[in-house]
Amino acid sequence: MAFALPVWLAVQEELLGHGDADFGTSSCFDDFDDEALFQMFHLTRSCIAFITDAVRIRMWTVTQDKPTSPVDVMVMVALNYYAHGASSVAVLQRLGSSLAESSPTIIGTISGVIAGMADQFISFPLTRDAKASVASRIKKVCGIPDVLGVLAPAHFKIRASPYEKNTFRSFVNTLGYTSIVSQIICDSDGNILSLEKCCVGSTFEQEMWDTSFRGREIEKELHGPYWVIGGKGYHLSKHVLTPVSEPENDSETRFNEAHAKIQDVMRTTLGSLKRRFRCLMQLGFAQETSLDKKSNIIKACCVLHNIAKKFSVPPPPAAGKIEPLHPGKQHSASEKIDPEALTARQKLISNNFTLVSSSQDPSGNNVTEEDRG
């Protein structure tokens, strides 16, 4: 993914080139000390300054939207909403009645601007060195080689009208609550590498993968002989590595344990995302025909998640258990498995999770099968 420091310098250069009167001057965030700033926005001062400058330059050069209010004020309103799911009294008091009434519009505008920065801050490894680096770090975590990321559906709770029965049912996921769902891929450090889709909660993850831009790229081998880690809701393929449904030996058991270990990174990542941006715990009312605003909020929070990680900003402490990964649709045993994919997985397990048997000679020294040969 993009590195924050070079982007920061580029943003500063653009701002100076445009002669921005707001750049380097006082900001509405100056009214908060560092502790209050983190409580209000779950971000640090330097991180917020970077976000504000990035939003300002994008509004100038890309969206060409003339801000209706000072950019730092608009960013403050949006970040406060992302952090808490509602505007805090301290923020509303600083806005005045007219701005407070327009806060939903402000949040929508800033969400669209930050979502538009996704290509810059959410990036899949494309070069040979980048892929090798991501795969190497994942192997260090779990022992599984040639993996470019962890794939999972991310469900976000919404409200839907129960009086519109067909629409309501479409939002109900396999856990029985109403949600919208996006497809996320992360690396072993919890950076989000890919974010696609914003579908009703009943959408199966395999369906999202089959129709996603990243899924089609990977399955067509445009990224080379690499895997992504997928849960039980995905079909095993030559590029989606799923756990063994019924392990028959110690090697398969060890592989499943390694698979679960790297999948847990995704669980931690989504938990961190929702703790920092609590608006994602409940996104409010949604309609099947108009999910763009919800999609922009989700995408904006994922962009900010990656920026926060580059600035080493920890998430707020967990209040209770971390939400488990969504179990997804369980496939029946009768479903056909790609024999080439099955062979590839078995070869991976054999090469990486089979222990060499050994015995002892009369002196008590371990002797492997190679030594006896």
UniProtKB/TrEMBL annotation:
Function: Transposase-derived protein that may have nuclease activity. Does not have transposase activity.
GO cellular component term, pick one: cytoplasm
Coiled-coil ranges from the UniProt annotation: none
InterPro entries in alphabetical order: HARBI1-like, HARBI1_animal, HARBI1_dom
Annotated ranges, domain DDE Tnp4: 155-306
Entry protein name: Putative nuclease HARBI1
Cofactors required: a divalent metal cation
Polar residues bias spans: 353-367
Entry keywords, A to Z: Cytoplasm, Hydrolase, Metal-binding, Nuclease, Nucleus
Region Disordered, residue ranges: 318-341, 353-373
Organism of origin: Lates calcarifer (Barramundi)
Subcellular location: Cytoplasm; Nucleus
Similarity annotation: Belongs to the HARBI1 family.
One term of GO molecular function: metal ion binding
